[in-house]
Structures are given as structure tokens and as C-alpha cells.
Amino acid sequence: MITYALSDEHEELRQTIAAFARDVVRPVIGGYYERGEFPYDLVARMAKLGLFGLPFPAEFGGMDGDLFALGLVLEELARVDSSVAITLEAAVALGAMPIYRFGSEAQRRRWLPDLCSGERLAAFGLTEAGGGSDIPGGMRTTARLEKGDGGGEWIIDGAKSFITNSGTAITSLVTVLAITGGDPGGPREISSIVVPAGTPGLTVGQEYSKVGWCASDTRELAFASCRVPAGHLLGARGRGYAQFLQILDEGRIAIAALAVGLAQGCVDECLLYTGERAACGHRLGHYQAIRFKLADMEARTHSARLAWYDAAARLVAGQPVKRQAAIAKLLASNAAMDNAREATQIFGGYGFMNEFPVARFYRDAKVLEIGEGTSEVQRMIIARELGVPD
């Protein structure tokens, strides 16, 4: 019989993070959000809980957990705030995971311990201003290998956009996708190269002024004759695009869990509000229109949660997940956006005030339909996986 009941270990983790989000994050995150300030103290406390090393082996300083456990953590954090959740998601699923999945033993031992401890963060340099969903076609960043002692150096030129965790005081590295060869007019050779923070030739731009995720770090990166040792190539030359398609499949499940957290947070806030707020002689929960909105919000959240649970369970079991990851990301981001809109409507004028969590939820929800693959891309993936002919 199929069951989605959590194991005792996973349930204990979920409850621990729920308490952390409620008691530690919730009281202070509004201030960080409005100031556009990165919450270093909250990140440090998350690090002490072992969250940045959760899905990695103990030999690298991790917690011997899995990506299902990471999803549970992201959902509970996002029930309160998405900025801290995306900081963790990007640091683990996009930042450290490529090093673990594709790095050499020496690269793993050099970079992973600090990343697993949460003392340092990693970033993922994929998107470019002219690329967006067309990663290989829109890529302009190049890296050429200059032979020399010790294997030589990669010389990187180009720019990346919308890179999370790339400019914090504790950023350790960014893994950059760059064109490393290929015939003119033919297929491009794309490779992954690790660039440590502070490398000459790497310029970190100013923090973007964002609609949402205002307490997370997102910047543009520029590379001008940026030199790193040849040994910073991650995995095989020419395998960068394939590597990050795999990383994005895993990351989409994590984003789906985060989106479900936001959707559930909207339900949580509305349940509290409708029990307190009165209109026309009755509490809001008395009115059928409000009750139906809440029922639809909960139904969307429940369905999306089952989708990311299914995708994550398949991933942990070593099964193919491309279609399930796309379905989970599509359903969950839709649920987050729909619930945020309905929650704002239930709160009325207060839902338009930034001091209320639902206002932050509304601002944070839209990007979930864009980042790590737009909703349109998810539909393309699902159709292709179904075998729909061109």
C-alpha cells in the first residue's frame, strides 16, 4: 500500500525546522526584508543546525541525509519566509551539489567541508542576460585554456545574471558554465569551471533591487580575463550543460518544496486572520466565500505537496525524475502564486501592507514561476517526456 507518511526521523526534522522558523525566523525576518539586508545571523543559526550539509556524506562534513530531507526543511522555512529558504536551496542544490556530483576527490575535499558547515556559500553561474531559457543558444561567456605549468589556466570572459549567493561576505565560489570550444555554426562545447570568490578578473555587481526575496543575495557577475587553474574544471570537458541539466532536475524538486511552503504559509496566515477579523457582525470564517477560498487553497497545497514528495522519493530511490520534477515545479509554483493572490484578497487592505507576511508572500511567489525553469519550460519538458511529436 502506498503511503506518504513521513518516517519518524523525517517527522522529527520537520518539527525541529518548523519550530526554528516560527520562533527564530518569523520575529525578525520582516526587518531584514524591508531593509534588503542579508540575514547573516539566521544563516549562521541554520548552519549550526547542520542544514547546509544535510544531503551530503559525513566524510565531507555533511549530515548523511538526503534530498527528501532537504525538501522538508525548505518547505518549513518557506512557510515563514522564502528569502532564507532560497538562500539554503541555492547554497545546497545549486552551489555545493555540483561539486559533490561532478568534482574530483581533491575538489570535494577542498570545497565541500566549508560548504557543508555553512561557514561559506557557493553559487551557480548559469543564466545570462541574453539567454534565459535558451541556455546553450544564448550563452556568450567563454573560457579558453592557456597551456602552461601545472596544466595551464582557464581564461574566462563574459557575464552572468541573477546569481543567488554570489556576493555575500561568506561566498566561497561560483561554478560557471562557459563555452570552451566547438566549431563555428556547430554544436558548442560547454564546460563547468569553479571560480573562487575574489579571483582577479571577477567583478561582483551591486545587489539587485528585487520585487521579492528581498533578504536574499542576487547579483550580476562579470568576468574579464579571469584566470583560474586548469584543475578547476569540474568533471569532464564539454559535459557542463549535461551536468547542469541534472542539477536543475534536482533543483526543481527543491524549488517545488519551497513553493509548497509558501502556499501553506498563506493558508496558515489566513486561518489566523479569519479567526480574528470581523466584518458585518461576523468573523471572516463565518462567510462561505472565505471558507471556499481556504478550501481551494488547502487543496492546491496538498496536491502540490504530493507531487514534490513523489518526485523526491523517486530521486532518492535512484529513479528517473525529469517528468515528475517538472510536474512538481509547475504545480507547486502555480499553487504558491494562486494562494498568495487569494491570501492578499482575504486580508484586504492589510494584505497590501508590507508588515503582514502575506504581502511578502505575494511579492515572493511570482519568481517561483520563473526561476530554475519557467512554467512554460516545465510544460515543454512534460510534453517531451510524454512523447508528444514535434
Task: Produce a short descriptive summary.
The protein is built from 11 helices and 10 strands.
Can you count the beta strands?
Answer: 10
Helical proportion, percent range? 40-55%
Largest sheet: 4 strands, mixed
Order of helices and strands: HHHHHEHEEEEEEEHEEHHHH
Q: By helix and strand content, what is the structural category?
A: alpha+beta
Strand order of the largest sheet: 1-4-5-8
Shape call: globular
| Distance from first to last alpha carbon | 38 Å
Question: Mean pLDDT, nearest integer?
Answer: 93
As a percent range, the share of strand residues is: 15-25%
State the helix count. Answer: 11
Q: Radius of gyration over alpha carbons? A: 21 Å
Ranges with pLDDT <50 over ≥5 residues? Answer: none
Structure characterization notes:
Helix 3 packs antiparallel against helix 4 and helix 4 (82-102) packs antiparallel against helix 5 (105-117). Strands 1-4-5-8 form a 4-stranded mixed beta sheet, with helices on one face. The model has no long low-confidence stretch (mean pLDDT 93). With 390 residues, it is of the alpha+beta class. It contains 11 helices and 10 strands.
Features:
51% helix; alpha+beta; four-stranded antiparallel sheet; four-stranded mixed sheet; globular; 10 strands; 390 residues; 11 helices
Task: Show the helix and strand layout.
Elements: H1 8-35, H2 40-48, H3 67-78, H4 82-102, H5 105-117, E1 121-125, H6 135-138, E2 142-146, E3 153-164, E4 171-181, E5 189-196, E6 202-204, E7 218-229, E8 233-234, H7 240-276, E9 278-279, E10 282-283, H8 288-316, H9 322-347, H10 357-365, H11 375-386
